[in-house]
Write a structure and sequence with these properties.
Layout: E1 9-13, H1 18-29, E2 33-38, H2 41-55, E3 59-63, H3 69-78, E4 84-87, H4 103-131, E5 134-139, H5 152-172, E6 177-184, H6 190-203, H7 207-216, H8 226-236, E7 248-251
Parallel strand pairs: 1-2, 1-4, 2-3, 4-5, 5-6, 6-7
């Protein structure tokens, strides 16, 4: 299937590694002109070189922190006429006791997982509406549907973003602009393994035990390859996905058991 991306300009945030990098690779394979942003210039350059080698695409980089006002301004200044935006703050919360978190820490999580994505959407969507094409995909987590103990600040910010988007999408879809959220579960990334190590330390157990427990509770019986997330996002950014908007799509191997 031709996803209709040739000539489309795509900006993928948090794209130097993990799921963001997988998304960037999938979009490049479909012919999108690619901008990738992340904090570290060295890892960003390495990702750009790898994607270019695999796809033959030109990949432009922006070393900036999406979770800061300055970083967002730098990214927006480097990219114009964006047709596809993938937001991915790339900030992972370690388990915390909500009773020990002060107001500043709550605000920091809102900045990272609410304002960062919202500011980018608000800046880029008007141009999409003028050109009558736009696809926005936010990378979240599957736990947005079933919040976990010790992750309250992260969940609060992600749910706030989901609520804001739900109120926005009906104004945008008449212009062929959609916003959807992909909520991944267990994917084979550095972030996953770091998180499992943190859970093991906090629970006084081993990484191996935590890993096996996660697999036991995943009906698919495995962790997923990042490309399985990248290709899903690519479809949501395609010409064929224009009738689908405002969805929080769980991609977790069957862990979530709810209907909605």
């Amino acid at each position: 299937m031709d996803l209709g991306m040739h000539g489309r300009r795509a900006l993928v945030c948090g794209a130097s590694k993990g799921l963001g990098k997988a998304v960037a690779l999938s979009l490049a394979r479909e012919g999108a002109e690619l901008f990738i942003a992340a904090r570290g210039q060295d890892t960003l350059n390495a990702a750009a070189e790898e994607i270019s080698d695999l796809t033959g695409s030109r990949v432009r980089t922006v070393a900036a922190d999406l979770t800061t006002h300055e970083g967002r301004r730098a990214i927006l200044a480097a990219c114009d006429d964006i047709d596809i935006l993938v937001t991915n703050p790339g900030v992972r919360q370690q388990p915390v006791d909500f009773r020990t978190i002060d107001r500043g820490e709550w605000d920091a999580w809102m900045e990272a997982h609410f304002y960062a994505s919202l500011d980018m959407i608000r800046a880029i969507v008007p141009g999409m509406c003028e050109r009558r094409f736009g696809r926005v995909v936010n990378l979240s987590v599957s736990f947005i549907k079933f919040p976990q103990v010790s992750f309250a600040p992260s969940h609060a910010a992600r749910v706030a973003l989901a609520g804001a988007i739900a109120a926005m999408v009906r104004e945008l879809i008449p212009f062929n602009v959609t916003i959807n959220t992909v909520c991944p579960g267990l994917f084979d990334t550095d972030a996953l393994h770091t998180n499992l190590h943190a859970h093991a330390r906090r629970g006084g157990t081993s990484y191996e035990a935590i890993f096996e427990d996660r697999l036991l509770h995943c009906p698919a019986g495995r962790i997923a390859d990042p490309s399985e997330c990248g290709d899903l996002v690519a479809f949501l950014c395609s010409a064929q996905s224009g009738f689908m908007t405002g969805q929080n799509i769980i991609n977790d191997g069957g862990v979530y058991q709810g209907l909605f």
